[in-house]
Each structure stands twice: as structure tokens, then as C-alpha cells.
Input
Amino acid sequence: MKDQRAFQYYSRLLSFDSKQDILVSLAEVAEVLCTTPRHSRTLLQALQERGWLSWTPKVGRNQRSVLQLHYSLNELQQELAKDLIANGQYEKAMDLVQGDQSRFSALLQQTSGATLREGQLHIQLTYPRFSATCCRISPYATVNVF
Output
């Protein structure tokens, strides 16, 4: 499952409280995710493998499982955007933060420096410069990749 799709499912689960143990039936989770109970079980396992939530299922019909969401929506957006920037996918990161240039530039500053990707050295230098003329089509106004 791609990160964007997993993020959509996780954001639907945020109707439950995050960072607390929640007793919930699989049918309730399926209703929130707009899927069948069988598919919602698969989705919960996939999200648990990513480390976004903890899920302890109970055996039997209508038994309440324990669900704990580890991230708020903003925290997860931040983590995913950092990963995308670290992999050089700047456009996807900009889309994920919904075009917010201040958040994007803060993420760029956090991830700047030298990294090794696919056997090549990548150096990302961020420096302050006027970026009011940036448009959504050109998110690279404050990024120079060599």
C-alpha cells in the first residue's frame, strides 16, 4: 500500500482518540474506514507494520479490540514529508503539507546536508532567500540540488 493511501486510512481512524488505548470492535473500525471488516483487519495490520498504530485483536464476535493511534495528523504528515524529502521527492512532500511553504521550508532545513542515495552522494543546501514569488507549480524555489 502506498504512503498516501495509508495516510488517508489513518486520517479516517483519527475520529478515535490518538495516543490512548481505545476499546473498539472490528465492525466499528470497518465503518470508520468505509470497508468490510475483513479488509479493515488487513488495513490495521498494514498500518501496525508501519508503526503508526498498535492493535491487539480479541477473539470472537463483537469482542472489543485494543487500538492505539501513535501519531496525530500533523505529526504523521511531518514524518512522511521528511521521508519524502530525504528521498528527493520534493513535489510529493509539498503536496503532503498542502502547499504550506513555511512548513516545507522548515522541513528542508531539518533534512539539509549530505546523504547517500542509490550509491550517489546528494548534497542539499538550504539558505534563506526571498520566495514570495514561489508558486505551487515550482516548489524548488528554495532548494538547490547538486
Remarks:
- Residues 73-86 form the longest helix (14 residues).
